[in-house]
Amino acid sequence: MTTTQAGPMATVEVDPAEVGMDADRLARIDRHFARYVDDGRLAGWHAVVARRGRVVHSTTYGQRDEAAGLPVTSDTRWRLMSMTKPVTSVAAMILWERGELELTDPISRWIPAFADTRVFAEGSATDPVVVPQAEPIRVWHLLTHTAGLTYGFHHAHPVDELYRRAGFEYTGPPGLDLAGCVDVWASLPLMHQPGAEWNYGHATDVLGRIVEIVSGRPLDRFFDEEVFGPLGMRATGFVADDPELLARVYAIDPMSGRRVQHDAMGRAGLTPPTALSGGGGLVGTAGDYHRFVQMLARGGELDGARILGPRTVSYMVRNHLPGGVDLTEFGRPAFGEMPYRGIGFGLGLSVVLDPVAFRTAASVGAYAWGGVASTVFWVDPVEQVTALFFTQLVPSSAYPIRTQFRQLVHQALVD
């Protein structure tokens, strides 16, 4: 029997007018996304907005489990999916700050199998032509998604198909732990030469394995001791502490276009996973993740708990793509959790380079990431705004939730 950890609730802390926001305009967020529930696009959601470190808006709507008739509440547990990646990236940077790894270190230093990984050059999944690596995969490549690793669910390249044949699409083969998964990925060809392109894939899962090896601790223990414990994120982990509070996952049926329950992905978070996915395995509450985001927004510290130094966070949220280009110039045209135009990529986070090209009233330097079940967060350091939206719909590209959420938050700024 598990014990439920209440954790922080992300409740409203200040009158919006005191921090330059309009309460009536913030209410547009609720009216807009209520329609998503009322017309059947979403089951339910939780939105949190803060300015200058204080929550100005926190609302829930709809149901976390339609079949059981259970509403979304402030303590609903959500599958974070790829919003796990920033946590793993922070974990790696904790070790970097301590001098236990370098961004330029070849990852074969800890995972020798990657010393022999080949690179896809041409051909098909049944008859691939491979060549040697021009340079080794380095820690920097994992943090920036430029290692050449991919996801099976892309369905865009022969290497994606090789991942699916090995049992990796949205999930992995049953019974395989993280070390075993990493060995399989190392045996498959890279999609491109390390550092040559940006492609969304299992890079952060490999990074999580490196965190385990370097620290000598399983990833869940490292997270608990170095991030969640210090930040008071008591309801976040690789398994829901209270399954009844865990929201259902829904998906768009490609045949009917209707939303249906996604049972395969819905099993995640119900029992302890065999493989601790640093790329997509965490479950938590909006209140918990709000604290993680506030730690980033405040330069690595929250309520006396310093996780990273401020210069480390500043370094993470710069654009690390070569030549300062955006993802349209350096990324493959496949699925990512953010648009490509006007967006660069730092160490585990996307970064706004050009709000005009992005077609959103964001500030230069705003950083973000999301998850495949349509969760998202972003930090705007210029406006001192943080925002989070939690729901459970796959894929996250089904509706323009993220761009609409941004514009609805920005239009409420009135100072």
List keywords for this structure.
415 residues, alpha+beta, Beta-lactamase, 2 domains, 8-stranded antiparallel sheet, 13 helices, 16% strand, disordered N terminus
Topology:
Elements: H1 23-38, E1 44-51, E2 54-65, E3 70-71, E4 78-79, H2 85-97, E5 119-123, E6 128-131, H3 139-144, H4 158-165, H5 178-187, H6 203-215, H7 219-231, E7 250-252, E8 259-261, H8 263-266, E9 283-284, H9 286-297, E10 301-302, E11 305-306, H10 310-316, H11 327-330, E12 343-345, E13 350-352, H12 355-358, E14 367-370, E15 376-380, E16 385-390, E17 393-394, H13 401-410
Organism: Kutzneria buriramensis
Pfam families: Beta-lactamase
InterPro entries: Beta-lactam-related, Beta-lactam/transpept-like, Diverse_Enzym_Activities
